Amino acid sequence: MGLAGDALDNALCESFFATLETELIGRRRFATLAGARREVFGFIDGFYNTRRSHSALGYISPADFEELHRAG
Fold first, then answer.
1. pLDDT digits over 24-51, tens only?
2. 23-43 exposure pattern, b = at least 16 Cβ within 10 A, e = fewer
3. φ, ψ for residue 26 (rounded to 5)?
4. pTM flag (> 0.70)
5. What's phi and psi for 63, nearest 5 deg?
6. Residues paired with 60 in a beta bridge
7. By C-alpha distance, which of 35, 36, 65 is closest to 49?
8. Which of 11, 32, 33, 60 is an S-S bond match for 64, by CB 3.0 to 4.6 Å?
9. Could you count the other beta carbons within 10 Å of the beta carbon of residue 14?
10. Which residue has the higher pLDDT, 46 or 9?
């Protein structure tokens, strides 16, 4: 951990929120707060954490990464 306000501590979070804004929020308008919450949850649980390729995992999805390591 760096000092308070250190940009490196926030890099992962900033990257996630940039992706969320670019791929979901920036492309849509939501009629209700509940609808927005559902869509954000669906993005995180149904796409970001399962199917989206991640550079930290060698550009494969977390689901594929886990499957590779479960088999080996």
1. 888 888 999 999 999 999 988 988 888 8
2. ebeeeeeeeeeeeeeeeeeeb
3. -70, -15
4. no
5. -65, -45
6. 54
7. 65
8. 60
9. 11
10. 46
Structure tokens at 42: 């669906």
Q: What is the spatial distance between Cα 19 and Cα 7, in angstroms, rounded to a whole number?
A: 18
The torsion region of residue 63 among left (phi > 0), alpha (psi -120 to 50) and beta comes to alpha
DSSP 56: G
Structure confidence at residue 35 (pLDDT): 94
The tokens 């250190």 sit on which residue? 6
Give the position of tokens 């939501």: 30
